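Format notes (please read before filing issues)

Several people have asked whether sequences and C-alpha cells are stored in separate files. They are not. Every record keeps both together, in the order shown below: the sequence lines, then the C-alpha cell lines. Line labels are part of the format and must not be stripped during preprocessing.
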Amino acid sequence: MRRFVLMSLLAIPSLAFAQNTPASASTPAASNNPAQPLSAEKQIRKAVSFIKMTCTSGGKVYESRGTGFFVAYPDTRIGDHGAFIYLVTNRHVAECWDDDRRPRTVQAVDITLNLREGNSATLHNDGNMPWILPAVSSVDLAAIPLMPDLARFDYIVVSTSDFVKDDEALSEGNKIMFSGFFYQFPGVHRMQPIVREGILAMLPDEDMTTTTGKPGKVYLGDVHIFHGNSGSPVMVNLGGIRGGMISSDSYRMLGVVSGLYDEDTDFNLTVTTTLAGTVHGNSGIAMIVPASQLKALLDDPRLQADRDVQVPLIQKREAQKKPEAEKRSANDAK
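Then the structure lines:
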C-alpha cells in the first residue's frame, strides 16, 4: 500500500544559507521557527531524511541505507512563494545497486523523518517508487515529487535558488559541509543525522569516472564519508576574502554525495558507492555530483510536464479555498 503524498506546497520553510541571517521574503520561514535563526549546521541536519531500501537478488534479501533531502523548485504560477517539492538521492540508492552496479528488485522503501512533537516516524512504500532518473546515465542522481505533511514532520527544504550556479564562484580550499546517515548511531527515538566538514579538494576541468562507472562531471571533496552517506546534501561556504573584501559565512548548495575513493595496501584508489560493504582503507576523498546537474534533472521535460499538469489543479484548489478563508475572516471580525 502506498502511503506517500505526491504534491506541491505553496509556502515552505526553507534553508537560509547565509549563516546567522534570517530567511528573506522570497524564502518564507515557518511561523513556528524560533526567533533566532538556526545555524547552518542545524539547518542542514533538518534538511535530510534517512532512506532504507529492502531489495532482493538471487533469492536473497538485502537492506541498504542512504540519505535523502528535500528540494523546492519555485514556480510562481502557484503563488508568489509557490514551489514543487522533491525528494532527492542518488541513482544507486534509488535502484538499490549491487557491487557490480546492477539494480536489484526493490521490495520496499522506508523514509524516516523526525516529528515536530518528538520522536521520528517512517513513511513506508511497498515496492519501489517512481523515481525520475537523469537522461545522462553517468549522473548519479534520482528525484521524486514528495512532500511529507509539514504539520507533522519537522524538516526544511533546499531551494534551487540557493544552488551554486557557476563553477567560477568556487575554488579549491572552500569549506564544505554535509549531513547524512550515521551508520553507527542513526538514532533510537529520533533520527540523528551526522554533520561533517572538509574542503573542496578538486574542481576537475575534464570528466572523471563516476560512481556509475561512466565518465562525467564531478567535484572532489577532502571530507570523510562512509556507509549511508550516499545522497547527502553538500554545502559550500562562499564567504571569505573576495574582490579584496571580507564577507561573512555564506553557504550555498554545492552538490550531492555520490561515493568515495577506497585505498588499498598498494595505495591504489578505487571509486565506490557508500551503500554497503567493507572499506579496507577510506582515502578521505569524496565524490560530489554538482548542484547544476541536480538543477538539470529538476528541469527535465518529464518533471516539467508533470508540473504543467499540476498547476491548474492547484490553482483551482486554491481558488476554492479563498471564499472559505474570506468567510471565516468576516465571521471573526463580527
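For reference, the curators noted about this record: DSSP finds four helices and 19 strands in the chain. Helices lie at 40-46, 91-94, 291-298, 301-333.
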